[in-house]
Design brief:
alpha/beta; five-stranded mixed beta sheet; 9 helices
């Protein structure tokens, strides 16, 4: 017979809430129970596991020990699996329902999320999708903290410190945009060296900025960064006004900009490898049925032409 563990799911839940709050007092308020119940559950859990889970410092709250950090990830996975078992036991297995929290790189959101929300509503109306938009470093931190189930992001800036599992779902080759009236606008392709004398409008996001600058620098000419912005659409609008050219990856379905101007897209002949759009999660974590359903939808959406 398989030996039984001494701890309970309730203890794990109290542990996770306490770890998130950093205080048993705050955790008791979050759980709507007495602080003594939280303290007893944590103490019993430490006793059953024979490890110390928190460092207790007067006036500084609670900090996870290395053992506590290891348990935190396993506890999240175990509680998620317990919910799956409960639904299966009730006969709810055929109806996929519950929350899924998706981390999404800011510039990918307009291209993937509308289709994801629409199709998930049609196919799996019981799934509630929550989104955390951010840059790569923020999404990696959210994965490590368990705040998101998985991330949709590019392959640049993924931290080697975390044990991440990534799957490529689409290529995202770089291309150039110039004003619609630019002398090169009609030729369809370009080498970055042909634009070396012109100012660069830079999408100024961490890791992205280094990637775009490196593409230009590979021509042997340092990029003349005249304008910077963290907004994808502002880049397009500045270019449409004739203030420079830019290099981007995702392609809107229209050449019109918010400001009413127009840009032209040019394929790159430089042979630079495309970025990769990836689904990234913590390695070793068993995803719930609803999370896998959302990931499958994103894989399907990624195979379609833009606008479909």
């Amino acid at each position: 017979m398989t030996p039984l563990t001494g701890f309970t799911l309730v203890q794990l839940r109290y542990f996770l809430v306490t770890a998130e709050c950093g205080s048993m007092t705050e955790a008791s308020g979050e759980l709507h129970i007495a602080q003594s119940a939280v303290s007893t559950a944590i103490n019993n859990l430490e006793r059953d596991l024979r490890v110390q889970l928190f460092l207790r410092r007067r006036g500084r709250g609670l900090t996870l020990t290395p053992a506590g950090e290891r348990l935190q990830q396993h506890a999240r996975e175990l509680l998620a699996r317990a919910c799956e078992v409960e639904r299966e036991a009730r006969g709810d297995g055929e109806t996929i329902s519950g929350p899924v929290t998706v981390g999404c790189f800011v510039t990918l959101a307009p291209y993937y999320l509308p289709s994801l929300f629409s199709e998930c509503t049609d196919r799996c109306p019981g799934i509630e999708i929550n989104v955390v938009e951010g840059e790569t470093d923020q999404l990696v931190q959210a994965l490590g903290a368990g705040r998101i189930d998985f991330a949709l992001t590019y392959d640049i800036g993924l931290s080697a410190e975390l044990n991440l599992r990534s799957e490529t779902i689409a290529p995202a080759p770089a291309y150039v945009i110039v004003p619609a009236g630019h002398p090169l606008a009609g030729q369809g392709t370009v080498e970055l060296a042909e634009l070396s004398a012109e100012p660069l409008v830079l999408l100024d996001l961490p890791h992205s900025r280094d990637y775009f600058r490196s593409l230009v620098a590979a021509t042997g000419v340092a990029p003349d960064v005249r304008y910077r912005t963290r907004s994808y659409e502002t880049v397009r609008s500045l270019v449409a006004r004739g203030l420079g050219y830019s290099v981007l990856n995702q392609r809107p379905a229209t050449s019109q900009t918010y400001g009413g101007g127009e840009i032209a897209e040019l394929e790159l002949r430089d042979g630079s490898p495309p970025l990769k759009v990836k689904l990234t999660s913590v390695a070793g974590m068993t995803q719930t049925t609803r999370t896998r359903a959302v990931m499958d939808l994103l894989r399907e959406i990624a195979t379609r032409p833009p606008g479909n």
